Amino acid sequence: MANLFDKIAEKKISRRTFLAATAASTAGLALTGCGSVLTTGGTNVETAAANKEGTWIPAACWHNCGGGCKNVALVVDNIVVRQKTDDTHPDSPDYPQQRACLRGRSQRRHVFGADRLKYPMKRKHWQPGGGDKSLRGKDEWERISWDEALGYVAAELKKAKEKYGARSILCAGWEDPSPFMGDFYPALFANGGCTTVHDDASWGTYYVAPTMGIPMRDDHTSNDRFDLRKADTVVLYACNPSWASLGSPSYHYWNAKKRGVQFIFVGPEYNNSASQLDAKWIRVRPGTDTAFLLAVAYTMLKEDNPVSNPIIDWEFLYKYTVGFDSDHMPADVTINENLKDYLLGKYDGQPKTPEWASEICGTPVEDIVYYAREMRMDKKVSILHSFAAARCNNSENLGQILMTTAAMGGHFGKPGHSCGDCRQGQSGNDGPNLVKTDWFGIVNPLKNPVDDIITGADLWDAVLKGKYKRTGNLEDPFKTDVEERDIDIHVIAHVFRNTLQTNMGVMKGIEAHRKVDFVFSLAFSLNASAQYSDIVLPITTQWERQSAYLFLSYAQNREVSFFPSRVIEPLYEAKSDQEIGEALCKYLGVDPKVLYPRSQEQRYFDFIANATVIKKDGTGMETLATITEEDLAEWGQKWGVKGKTQQGRIGLKELMKQGQYQVERYEGDPYGHIKYADYIQDPEKNRLGSKSGKFEIYCQAKADKINIIGRSKVKPYPDYIEPLNGYEQSFKDWKNKVKGEYPYQMFTPHYFRRSHTIYDNIAVLREMARNPVFINAQDAAEKGIKNRDTVLIYNQYGKILRLASVMDTIMPGVVSIPHGSWLDLDEETGIDHGGTENVLCAPVAAGIGSSGYNTNLVNFKKYNGPALQPDYLRPLKIVKL
Ligand SMILES: Nc1nc2c(c(=O)[nH]1)N[C@H]1C(S)=C(S)[C@@H](COP(=O)(O)OP(=O)(O)OC[C@H]3O[C@@H](n4cnc5c(=O)[nH]c(N)nc54)[C@H](O)[C@@H]3O)O[C@H]1N2
Ligand SMILES: Nc1nc2c(c(=O)[nH]1)N[C@H]1C(S)=C(S)[C@@H](COP(=O)(O)OP(=O)(O)OC[C@H]3O[C@@H](n4cnc5c(=O)[nH]c(N)nc54)[C@H](O)[C@@H]3O)O[C@H]1N2
Ligand code: SF4
Ligand SMILES: [Mo]
User: Fold this and answer.
1) Residue closest by Cα to atom 14 of ligand 1
2) Non-local CB neighbours of 451 within 8 Å, separated by 6+ positions
3) Which is the most buried residue in 182, 294, 354, 530, by most CB within 10 A?
4) What's the rounded Cα separation, in Å, for the pair 504 and 746?
5) Residue 246 near ligand 3, beta carbon < 6 Å
6) 175-193 mean pLDDT
7) For the residues 38-49, what does the mean pLDDT come to?
8) Residue 444 or 172, more confident
């Protein structure tokens, strides 16, 4: 092998020979534990780069981590020999470089990984109709031609549609609107459509609830990053930017810290971000935040004295909200109740005191009081939340009570005050985009002819039992259509998610996969969904395409947009989603031009041409790219695209050379943003999206929308609901505090070694972050578990192994298992050695039906079998063809 790498590095080998040689030798690589065809031979690769033979090309970093950072690849003979990050301008706190994280910088190990899928393949014992279905996930693979592969897929799709209707085909990805389904979906629509999945994964209950009567996507956001520095206190509520918002957010928080801002973190563990910022830790058990915040509101109410101790901003509360007390109710009330009297215990005899809450949420009484006092009206407070606490069963009232406590202190719409979302690339830096691109604008807005849409938590049961409760995609804040339906799924298509692994209830998912007639996947490498398929179609990575992608526009850093180029030609026989979709259309007997009217290169060109940038004086947007006749000729020749000339801020050639456009920021610039400032200035003219036009502390629409589903009953104000699989249910006898069979709560944080399941097959990243089970020291001691011991974590849904990380910084009774580690199931024992958290997450829907990823009950013990080896020593899933 070493010779091969030397030759690559010295460029004495052509691309064709390289591909043939690496294809033949990947088995050898796997045995040596080497994760990538480029991870050895370092010095020679360095030599090639040092000889300045390659070309630096801005490259995509295209996964759903929300980072949006700069990645640049040094390409020598179609091989990326090095990567670098943003060096387009000097770095400063106000005008930071968009530096890539370790994952992004390891991208070439993903693209050139020894486990890259090279050819279309089918499992050996698959036959039309299913063959031996029990072998799914463990069968051998056979190489087939594209012609055979597409022929099989088309035949199975047509057969399912003719025999059972198009709704028997499940596209196990995201829901409509279709742009979330990737570029392949038009081909499924060509066959009459497909059943889809609704999973408000990211937002949990926060946006479907609808919080304060306002639809989430537009409205629960926060202020610009310069405003962070103006706060006295910043609350990081259930978020962890240093793991889950890589890119520049941690830097923004750090800059605020340097200006003297105090940080508070609320959550079940003292996480990395909290410790970086030296935040005060307010501990709260998973899924119990509503109880905690009700007690905060109660304490604010009890301690407030307008003269001697003004805590509550009554003027704000009465002017901008409805429903706090009986004198300020909205017009559409159906019950004569309000939050204030609920807090005081008027309806259930239970005042929501810190003592009451503490028993549930585990927060010391003095910390509840501390937090309530921090919310006071004479402090500048910014409450920035992620959605982890809303990714809990029955957390529908959480957003409403969180915003209520903020409104009680008057913390909206003024410099230094805010309460809103701080997720992904917008973490700590919210507001309208200063450089704007629109992915939705270049996607064909096709309508799925099938209206079946299954809630994520119910998905596998629906396949297995043939029934489900249809609640739609819950986008409309004021309405839910509920219908019990029969469903008869015969085909599962994995086209843009790794749903078998990222959806709750993996074991049930496997059963569902082994039931249906046909499963196919589009994939880069053998992730769980591909592994349990019959036919796998190899896709190109974004590095092999000149195309736009969803995460260029979505959850994006407001002050920069990236414009990567194709870095290398497609590897092996991989094709892009659109190429596969177009080719499949022909086998389905449909004209691809109808479904794909524009080539992917044309769509990318249009995406760039339509990009806009804020005018220098901040008064509106203007065209970003200048496009000349010369540019049109060049792009026409190279990519076959057409366009018009236009005048913009920067020439197209320069833009693509830089691979990004970033607006230079400075304190006091005209690009700042204070969320809700217009509403606070003129609440009549700038009514909110709720029915009353105000923040609804009594929200009839919320209660109606949730209650009609019939899984729980909430009040229009935020009342406390005992969560399914929450803390209370970890006891078999709550009153006498006798613990049940699964006495530990488990939450599943987004992990810094990967983006969901992406990059988890990169050995160096596995070595850098070990993905243990995090256990409280007291709990570990009780079970005789020490650091790095092998631990079996189990419940009625499955069993996984992890190495222990024993710590004081996670609450007793709580374990944390990072989200997204690759499934590695031992079929004999039923134990997953890969540590996939969704093996343990309960596939059951509660409340409005959002996924309760952070409310799960488990037990654990020291494992008696052979010790688990660290993940980085486990061989990759390399297919030998
Ligand atoms: N590295 C990396 N980054 C990512 C992703 C990834 O997979 N990897 N995924 C991206 C995506 S799509 C999303 S949606 C975001 C998610 O981003 P977040 O929602 O911020 O991520 P989490 O890690 O799930 O949760 C953050 C913190 O919430 C706390 N927490 C957990 N449960 C509760 C609870 O019930 N109450 C309270 N108060 N706190 C709780 C934990 O301390 C945890 O550290 O991350 C994005 N960024
Ligand atoms: N237990 C638990 N489960 C969770 C969460 C949690 O916190 N806890 N978080 C949830 C959240 S917030 C989210 S957003 C989801 C994410 O769930 P997923 O979207 O399923 O997660 P990814 O691992 O990002 O999978 C994306 C897949 O798309 C593929 N892909 C990437 N680019 C392309 C492309 O161009 N074409 C095609 N065809 N495929 C491509 C990748 O190979 C990968 O298989 O997970 C959810 N699941
Ligand atoms: S945070 Fe995400 S986008 Fe940024 S470098 Fe890392 S993986 Fe790439
Ligand atoms: Mo997400």
Assistant:
1) 202
2) none
3) 294
4) 13
5) yes
6) 84
7) 51
8) 172
DSSP assignment of 653-664 equals: HHHHHHTEEE--
Dig out the tokens for 498 from the structure: 């790794």
Token pair, residue 674, equals 């204070």
Query: What does the H/E/C string look like for 726-773?
Result: CCHHHEEECCCCEECCCCEEEECCECCCCECCECCCCHHHHHHCCCCE
- Determine phi and psi for 837, rounding to 5 degrees: -65, -30
The answer to whether the CB of 756 is under 6 A from ligand 1 is yes
What value does the mean pLDDT take over residues 352-379? 98
pLDDT for position 856? 98
Token look-up 């695209």 returns 641
Q: Residue 594 has which token pair?
A: 């109808």
165 with 440: CB under 8 angstroms? no
Q: What are phi and psi for residue 556, nearest 5 degrees?
A: -100, 150
- Helix 600-609 × helix 629-639 angle, to 10°: 160
206 vs 325, higher pLDDT: 325
- Nearest atom in ligand 2 to the alpha carbon of residue 755 is 24
Cα angle 196-202-205, degrees, rounded to a multiple of 5: 90
Whole-angstrom distance, CA of residue 235 vs CA of residue 767: 32
pTM to 2 decimals? 0.95
Q: Of all protein residues, whose CA lies closest to atom 33 belonging to ligand 2?
A: 496
Residue 49: per-residue pLDDT: 62
Q: Which two tokens stand for residue 852?
A: 């309760």
Binned at pLDDT 50, 70 and 90, residue 37 comes out as very low
Secondary structure element (H or E) that encloses residue 536, with its range:
strand 535-538
Cα–Cα distances in Å, from 85 out to 59, 63, 629, 755, 849? 10, 16, 31, 18, 41
pLDDT (0 to 100) of residue 216: 62
Predicted local distance difference test score (pLDDT) of residue 780 = 98
**Tokens 């049930």 map to which residue?**
508
Please give the CATH topology (third level) of the domain spanning 727-873: Barwin-like endoglucanases (2.40.40)
Protein residues placing their CB within 5 Å of the ion ligand 4:
201-202
Please, are residues 774 and 805 in contact by the beta-carbon 8 Å criterion?
Answer: yes
Res 177 pLDDT > 80: no
Pick the residue whose CA is nearest to atom 30 on ligand 2: 496
Residue 716, preceding bond cis, omega within 30 degrees?
no
Contact (CB, 8 A) for 11 and 77? yes
Going by pLDDT thresholds of 50, 70 and 90, the confidence category of residue 474 is confident
Give the pLDDT of residue 217. 56
On whether the CB atoms of residues 267 and 745 are closer than 8 A, the answer is no
Angstrom distance (rounded) from CA 567 to CA 545: 8
3-class secondary structure for 274-298? HHHCCCEEEECCCCCHHHHHHHHHH
Q: Over the chain, what is the mean pLDDT?
A: 92
Q: What is the pLDDT of residue 36?
A: 44
Peptide bond into 96 cis (omega under 30): no
Give the CA angle between residues 735, 739, 744 to the nearest 5°. Answer: 125
Query: Looking at residues 235-260, what average pLDDT do you find?
Result: 93
CA distance 270 to 64: 25
206-433+675-709: what fold? Dimethylsulfoxide Reductase; domain 2 (3.40.228)
Mutate-to-test residue for ligand 1 from 385, 386, 816, highest number of ligand atoms within 8 A of CB:
386
- Flag whether pLDDT at 570 surpasses 90: yes
Cα(183) to centroid of ligand 3, in Å? 22
59 CA to middle of ligand 2, Å?
Answer: 21
Nearest ligand to the C-alpha atom of residue 237: 1
Atom 2 of ligand 3, residue of closest alpha carbon:
67
At 339 the three-state DSSP class reads helix
Q: Which amino acid makes up residue 465?
A: K
Distance CA 393, CA 570 (A): 43
* Residue indicated by tokens 């005081």: 344
**Confidence category of residue 33, pLDDT binned at 50, 70, 90:** very low
What span, in angstroms and rounded, lies between the C-alpha atoms of 614 and 749?
A: 35
Least Cα distance to 62 among 469, 496, 481 occurs for 496
